[in-house]
Each structure stands twice: as structure tokens, then as C-alpha cells.
Design goal:
Elements: H1 2-28, H2 32-39, H3 44-59, H4 70-73, H5 76-101, E1 109-116, H6 120-135, E2 141-147, H7 153-166, E3 170-173, H8 182-190, E4 194-198, H9 204-209, E5 216-218, H10 221-233, E6 241-246, H11 252-268, E7 271-277, H12 282-295, E8 301-304, H13 307-319, E9 327-329, H14 338-343, E10 348-351, H15 354-371, E11 381-383, E12 387-390
Parallel strand pairs: 1-2, 1-3, 3-4, 4-5, 5-11, 6-7, 6-8, 8-9
Antiparallel strand pairs: 10-12
Helix pairs in contact: 1-5, 6-15, 7-8, 10-11, 12-13
């Protein structure tokens, strides 16, 4: 409907310009004698001119002084424009009728903008959101988008800009960066779009500095990581060397999970010998884990900030001949690690319920839209479940 309306406005504007130009040149630019002639019945001069033309036709010559007819005197551009106006006006009428007759959807449109769709966690999140919309199709429309990899904040900013132009009613976003996305989210709020934050929390200090209130709907990441670390601690001895493989350091969820792992290791008396980022990705997780194992041959555990990095760590442990000697834990409970949980290659993970997390955000947005609750009056934090998952 929006694209049709834009086409109508463009077409109408173009035709008005054409009509204005034609009238200006024809009426104000034409000689007075032409304007009068068009406004009156045929004059004596017209009759004399016709008689001269008749005589010229009879003797094969044309009196150079004979005035041209109205059609002849009209410039070529005038005739083409006049002939083109009629079908344009007719088409405009049809467009106007179609716009008036077309039903306008009263359903709110919600945009779900996620991080990397190469990560199974976000594919699961998208599937859960689509299933919820299918079951509530009469209540809202859903647009889903994601980026290619976890660090492509520029692409995610562009997606949000597109959603602003599209004119969605609500934006539910899992930001790739806790700070870099704040400016474009502010732009969305200023455009009248309700914004809900999921998965990775926006930096509270940055939001406060911009006087923004964006509610976070999601789990306590520190608590979830601590649960995983405490389960790992049962297999460790005080003084054992462990390392943490974290996500993107500028993201709040990576920071919170690292803190949760540290909490658990401190309680167990383990020695954290390294913290390195693998930017949430499996291949980078493999490379970082391999480097840590090479640097610390006696490493007893690798605590990974998500399951994708844990998959990479498992491969590195196997390649180093450390299977059964170096434990691996993760976070997210994606399907790919379930066989590894079963056979012990991964000791534990945390389930933050990807399929439901986006739904939590969507439902908060729909309730706020229905109640006409302004952005500034929304709650700052709505905590969702996170559970420890171990071998079945």
C-alpha cells in the first residue's frame, strides 16, 4: 500500500507540473489574438483566411500572408502534451479509486532484527517468532532480518534504517554491539517506533547519556554463566588452570557471561590463565582454543561464551589429544551440541530459550502498542528464564 501511495503521489505531481506548464505557455505566453480567437466563435478574419486558403489550393499556391490555423500554430510540444494529458488524468482517477477502495490493515507491523543468522541460536529465535506470528496472524505482521556475521554492526544499522523508512510500529532487536546501535535506535524512537531490546542488552550508561529508555527483555547472562561454571567446578581441583573464550568484548552479554564464569571459578579456587575473544564464531573459537592449549598444555577447562565457540573448542581439544582431559562448556543449548553433551565432549551449557526469547519481546511490544504506552513509560528490565543443561 505504501509503494502504491508513493507511485500515486509521484504520478500526480508529475502530471500537475505538466498541466501547469501547458496552461502557462498556452494562456499567458500566447498572443492576445490567439487567446481571443480560442474563446470566441469564428471571426470575419477567420472566414477571409479560409477563403484565401481555398483559392491558393485551387491555383496550387499559398498566400504567405495567410494565418495558420490554431492546430498549425500550436507548437509540437503543445500538441503532444495535450494528447498525453487525457490518458494520464484517466489513470490518476483509476489510481485514486483503487487507493480509496483498497483495505488498509489495522494490524501493527513488528520488525525482529537479530544478529548472525549463521548462528543456530538466531535461526531458532527466528523460527520461534514466525511460529508465534502464524498462531496470531490476525493480531500483527512480522518482518525478520539478520546479519551475515556477528561483528557486522554496519549491516545491522542499515537494516534498522530500512525498518524506519518502512514505517514499522515496533522494533525488537538483538544488537550486535551494545553501544554502536544506540544512535540508530534513538533515530527509530524519534520516528515514533516502539523499541524493545532482547538477547544482548544496550549499555545502560550510553542509554542514560542520551536520555533513552529501552527495556531489556532477556535472561540474566551472568547468572546463566555462573550456573554453567558451578557445574564445571565439580570436575576441577583448586589451582587448576582454566581459560575463558568470550564473545565480542563490547557486547553486554559477553561481558556478563565472562563475569559469571569468573564468579564460579573464583569460588572453586581455579586459576583463570587467559581470557580471549573469538567473536562468537566457531572457526575463531577453534583457533583461539588451539592457541590457548598450545600455550597452557595443562589446561583443565575451556569456558566458552556460546555454543558455536564451544564447537570450535571441542575440535581443538581433539586435535591436541586432550579429549577427556580438558573439559569444555558452552552457552545457548543449540541442537548441534546435544550429541556432545550426551557423550561428555561438552560438559554443560545454558538454555536461554531462543525460540521464546524473541516472542517475549514481541508480546511486550504488542501489549505496549495496544495500551498506547509511550517508550519512556516502559519498564527497564523484564527478566526471562535461563537454565542449566547437562548430559541427559
Amino acid at each position: 500500500m505504501l509503494s502504491l501511495l508513493r507511485a500515486f503521489i509521484h504520478y500526480w505531481s508529475d502530471s500537475l507540473k505538466l498541466a501547469s506548464t501547458w496552461l502557462d505557455r498556452e494562456v499567458r505566453g500566447a498572443p492576445a489574438s490567439r487567446r481571443l480567437a480560442r474563446a470566441s466563435r469564428p471571426s470575419l478574419a477567420d472566414a477571409e483566411a479560409a477563403d484565401r486558403l481555398r483559392r491558393a489550393a485551387e491555383d496550387g499556391t499559398r498566400d504567405a500572408r495567410a494565418p495558420r490555423t490554431t492546430a498549425e500554430s500550436q507548437p509540437e510540444w503543445d500538441r503532444s502534451n495535450v494528447s498525453g494529458l487525457a490518458p494520464r488524468i484517466f489513470t490518476l482517477g483509476l489510481l485514486a479509486f483503487a487507493l480509496a477502495a483498497a483495505p488498509v490493515s489495522a494490524k501493527p507491523r513488528v520488525a525482529l532484527v537479530m544478529k548472525s543468522l549463521a548462528n543456530e541460536f538466531f535461526l531458532t529465535m527466528e523460527t520461534g517468532a514466525r511460529e508465534h506470528q502464524r498462531l496470531h496472524a490476525a493480531e500483527y505482521e512480522l518482518i525478520t532480518n539478520g546479519i551475515k556475521d556477528e561483528i557486522d554492526t554496519v549491516a545491522q544499522i542499515k537494516i534498522v534504517d530500512q525498518m524506519i523508512v518502512t514505517g514499522v510500529d515496533a522494533l525488537v532487536i538483538a544488537p550486535a554491539d551494545s553501544k554502536a546501535l544506540v544512535r540508530v535506535v534513538q533515530k527509530a524512537i524519534e520516528a515514533g517506533i516502539l523499541v524493545i531490546n532482547i538477547d544482548n542488552r544496550f549499555d545502560p550508561a550510553v542509554l542514560h547519556a542520551k536520555n533513552l529508555n529501552v527495556p531489556f527483555v532477556g535472561p540474566d547472562n551472568r547468572k546463566g554463566a555462573r550456573l554453567v561454571g558451578e557445574h564445571l567446578a565439580k570436575s576441577l581441583q583448586p589451582g587448576d588452570q582454566v581459560a575463558i573464550i568470550e564473545g565480542i568484548p563490547t557486547t553486554t552479554n559477553a561481558q556478563q557471561r565472562t563475569l559469571g564464569f569468573r564468579d564460579a571459578m573464583a569460588s572453586a579456587g581455579a586459576n583463570v590463565v587467559g581470557v580471549q575473544s573469538a567473536q562468537w564464531e566457531m572457526e575463531k573459537g577453534n583457533a583461539v582454543a588451539a592457541a590457548l592449549l598450545n600455550e597452557h598444555p595443562g589446561l583443565k577447562a575451556l569456558l566458552c561464551g556460546n555454543d558455536s565457540m564451544a564447537l570450535g573448542a571441542v575440535a581443538a581439544v581433539r586435535a591436541a589429544g586432550r579429549t577427556g582431559k580438558t573439559h569444555v562448556v558452552g552457552y545457548d543449548n543449540i541442537n548441534a551440541i546435544k550429541p556432545m553433551l550426551k557423550d561428555g565432549r561438552i560438559l554443560a551449557t545454558a538454555d536461554q530459550h531462543a525460540a521464546r526469547q524473541a516472542v517475549f519481546g514481541i508480546e511486550i511490544a504488542l501489549k505496549a502498542l495496544a495500551a498506547k504506552t509511550p517508550q519512556g513509560k516502559l519498564g527497564e528490565l523484564i527478566e526471562t528464564p535461563v537454565d542449566l543443561v547437562t548430559a541427559p
